[in-house]
Design a protein that fits this description.
There is one protein chain. The protein is mainly α. It has 3 helices and 2 strands. The protein has 2 domains: about 45 residues; about 50 residues, no CATH class. A two-stranded antiparallel ribbon has the order 1-2. α1 packs antiparallel against α3.
Length: about 110
């Protein structure tokens, strides 16, 4: 304790606090970059699905649900939307004798 330098310790603490604040302030940009890199990787890995999404997004009506064969792609899309804070769209179960509906997940009710 005889060698403890209070002012030097205070400077180190202040430097750490400043560095921590800079890190916190830059976190959103780092996360956005990671998400963007992931989106590009998914688009590159699944070019047909990416083209389909682009075509459907250009339409004014909601896209039709796809078959269950591309569940991995949809899961990746769902995770990406969730990370971006978007409300993912999900396919609601078909009504008796009716069609499936594309809806936001917040309007879905859990099955009883």
């Amino acid at each position: 304790m005889a060698n403890f330098d209070g002012p030097a310790h205070s400077r180190v603490v202040e430097e750490f606090r400043n560095a921590d604040l800079r890190h916190i302030k830059t976190t959103p940009a780092r996360i956005k970059r990671k998400v963007a890199e992931h989106v590009v990787a998914v688009k590159d890995a699944y070019p047909q699905e990416s083209a389909l999404v682009q075509r459907e997004a250009a339409k004014k009506t909601p896209p039709r649900p796809q078959s269950a064969s591309s569940s991995r792609t949809r899961l990746t899309s769902f995770r990406t939307e969730a990370m971006l804070g978007h409300e993912p769209a999900v396919c609601a179960p078909a009504a008796p004798g009716g069609l499936s509906a594309l809806t936001s997940s917040s309007s879905m009710r859990p099955a009883k």
